[in-house]
Design a protein that fits this description.
The complex is a heterodimer. The radius of gyration of chain A is 23 Å and the shape is flat. Chain A has a two-stranded antiparallel ribbon with strand order 1-2. Chain A has ten helices and two strands, in the order ααααββαααααα. Chain A is mainly α. Chain A has helices at 18-34, 38-54, 58-63, 65-78, 99-125, 128-137, 142-171, 181-186, 189-212, 231-252, and strands spanning 88-92, 95-98. In chain A, a hairpin with a 2-residue loop joins strand 1 (88-92) and strand 2. Chain A folds into two domains: 18-126 and 230-252, no CATH class; 140-212, no CATH class. In chain B, helix 2 packs parallel to helix 4 (60-77) and helix 7 (153-185) runs antiparallel to helix 10 (205-226). Chain B has one domain. The longest helix of chain B is centred in the C-terminal third of the chain and has 33 residues, at 153-185. The chains are: A mainly alpha, B mainly alpha.
């Protein structure tokens, strides 16, 4: 099963230093957070689609289309009942929907989808190795980064094993699709036990393999992957910083706000 | 809390972090669409049978493993975002609180690390810790997502709490099945893998445990059902209580 979202393309975005990609996606998250007016959020969302097209990340947007659509619908349906606005449109008992809360709800739906879109662009242009290397270069201690990258590498193995276990147990007569929620969840124990034992047995072998090669979590290291910050990286970070500050300035001037909250 | 930092010196504990994270993430992905609650948002997270079991077996490695596993689930699931930050912290607590409170939640806990699985008192403690750690995780994540304006606190805190509690309770069966194998055959129980001086003794563990209980239950019940209009304020205060309590353990 292919669970990776990285798309092997040769774009300007793909060639950026992993530190730039990590800081860049944080700045994009910041821009997504600034406005709560649906028109401004629509502009931000459109900007992200254009960025996604430039980074050739649209196949991943298409792959996640149902989740993106459901996020917008869910948020739009839920928020009108929790955010309060001054212009009532409809009320029933304690439930009240206002014009502002409805607009806020649409904006929050777009915000949620924009978060996912920004994350998808990042994951489409960054390999797991680059992500880990970027985190280390930004100050993450090596043992933590090692555990993270090892886990990333083990996930497809364990996910594949999980899928095989499900099929094996179904072929033995385990019915995972009938019964109420609790009964159905309980049926996953015959799946969880073999997956757990299969995975944990790896621990001792992996630890012995590492120790026999002289692994020392605290020792200084050299790197095979050695990315460098170039002019394009500084330019990308400068552009995103300016965009974030401009958005923040607009919001502080009262633009892009339908309710006085984040 | 000391063991959470000192465990990074121990190769086996580092591998356990990676293995816990990978199992959790793999289960999140493999069983993601099994029983959807709100399509695209949340489902009955079958993977939640793992964090509490990991916690009681692998201690601090489970805390980091659950946190990293959830982050990887977000990465491979395509839902990486600012919400992932508090998803990391919430799942860290889900893996940290059960083992930390197993010895500190006195007088319910007897102070011994060994799991006496044939003793009813252990199972009472297990049920309480399943609820408290799930509510703590729910309060922290729901508070943050309300601050970000993504999902209303009263809705999400209850979904996460109930979802995680059910997962942890079902996980009790998994614990019964694998405890002997991990303890006697694989010899990977956390307090035997780590050096005794690296584990340390909490200075105010009992106080910390009860702060977490108060923060988690008040944050969930008051914020979701009694004073939902003030949910964000309640969420922030109880999140601080939970984090301070967790730090004291």
């Amino acid at each position: 099963m292919n669970i990776f979202l990285y798309l092997d393309e040769n774009t300007w975005f793909h060639r950026l230093d992993p530190r730039t990609k990590i800081i860049g996606v944080l700045l994009l998250f910041g821009i997504v957070m600034v406005f709560n007016h649906p028109l401004y959020m629509a502009a931000v969302a459109l900007g992200l689609v254009l960025l996604g097209a430039t980074a050739k990340a649209l196949p991943n947007f298409w792959r996640m289309r149902y989740i993106l659509a459901l996020l917008v619908v869910f948020s739009t349906v839920l928020w009108p009942f929790f955010a309060k606005g001054p212009t009532p449109l409809w009320s029933w008992g304690r439930l009240e929907v206002s014009r502002e809360s409805l607009m806020y709800a649409v904006a929050m739906g777009l915000r949620l989808a924009s978060f996912v879109a920004a994350g998808l662009i990042f994951l489409s242009i960054t390999t797991n190795e680059e992500f880990t290397q970027g985190l280390i270069r930004l100050g993450l201690p090596y043992p933590v980064a090692f555990a993270f990258s090892t886990a990333l590498r083990l996930v497809p193995t364990f996910a594949g094993a999980g899928a095989t276990i499900v099929q094996a147990q179904i072929s033995r007569g385990l019915d995972v699709e009938s019964g109420n929620i609790f009964q159905r969840a309980g049926k996953f124990i015959p799946l969880g036990v073999p997956l757990f034992i299969y995975a944990v047995r790896h621990t001792n072998m992996l630890a012995m393999a590492l120790e026999s090669k002289g692994f020392n979590p605290g020792a200084p290291r050299t790197w095979y992957l050695n990315p460098q910050m170039r002019r394009a990286d500084y330019l990308a970070l400068a552009l995103l910083t300016v965009a974030f500050l401009a958005a923040l300035f607009l919001r502080l001037q009262g633009y892009g706000q339908v309710l006085p909250r984040l | 809390m000391k063991a959470v930092i000192t465990m990074w010196k121990n190769t086996r504990m580092i591998i356990l972090v990676a293995v816990c994270a990978a199992i959790y993430a793999a289960a999140l992905l493999a069983f993601k669409t099994a029983i959807p609650l709100i399509p695209g948002i949340t489902e009955v997270r079958v993977a939640n049978i793992f964090p509490m079991v990991f916690s009681l077996l692998f201690g601090p490695a489970a805390a980091w493993g659950s946190a990293i596993g959830n982050l990887i689930g977000d990465i491979f699931g395509g839902t990486l975002g600012l919400g992932s930050i508090f998803g990391f912290i919430g799942n860290f607590l889900l893996g940290y609180l059960p083992y930390a409170m197993w010895t500190t939640l006195k007088p319910i806990a007897d102070g011994k690390r060994e799991l006496a699985l044939g003793n009813w008192r252990s199972w009472v403690l297990y049920v309480i810790l399943a609820l408290v750690s799930s509510a703590a995780c729910g309060v922290v994540i729901a508070m943050w997502l309300e601050v970000l304006g993504l999902v209303p606190y009263p809705v999400l805190v209850s979904i996460i709490t109930i979802n995680d509690t059910v997962g942890s309770l079902i996980g009790g069966l998994l614990l019964l099945a694998v405890y002997g194998v991990v303890r006697r055959q694989l010899r990977l129980i956390w307090w035997e893998v780590m050096e005794l001086e690296d584990i340390g003794k909490p200075a105010a563990g009992v106080l910390g445990a009860w702060l977490v209980v108060a923060g988690a239950l008040v944050g969930w019940i008051l914020g979701a059902y009694v004073l939902s209009g003030q949910a964000l304020v309640i969420g922030i205060i109880t999140t601080i209580l939970i984090l301070v309590g967790a730090f004291l353990m």
